[in-house]
Amino acid sequence: MAVPVPAGGPASVAWAAALTTLVNSLEAIINQQQTRAAAYLRAGATQSLSSATWTSLLLSVEDFDDDPDGIGGHSTSVNTSRYTARYAGWYRVGGGVGFASNATGNRACRWAVNGTLVDGSPTIMPACNGLATDVPSRSILIFLNANDYLEIQGYQSSGSPLNTTIVGGDSTSISISWERPAS
What we know:
By secondary structure, the chain is mainly beta. About 15% of the residues lie in helices and about 40% in strands.
């Protein structure tokens, strides 16, 4: 946005140029805040999880996946368990895992960056008999460098393979939103 130059000579021109630079910088900051990276991803099919094994969960449905350059951080065809950061910074993450009904053992979920556990992220609970067991993840801030990938992982200890669920509120899902830069 160009600022009009008031009458008054070269000093006014320099002042108007500086003010124009400031206004343009403020507009860029406002636009970045309005279009920060964010996504909401869900499982589109059940997934069988082996007993006593952490498993990265597939997220084939994108309710939205947006960032300032319009590319997004998730693919519905390649590595669908991953959200790949396009911008370094702190991301707020939340979500959960739904497990089919089975009364034996525990159910859990956790966050992983580049396949490695995020300390302090696991949640665990006993299985529910006769109902699906929904395990909410911790809603936390996680630092991601550009090209790091984030996954939600599920775990169950029923003694045999167990499916996740995709029915309504029991569906595995994650939400992610860039919150602030690395500094």
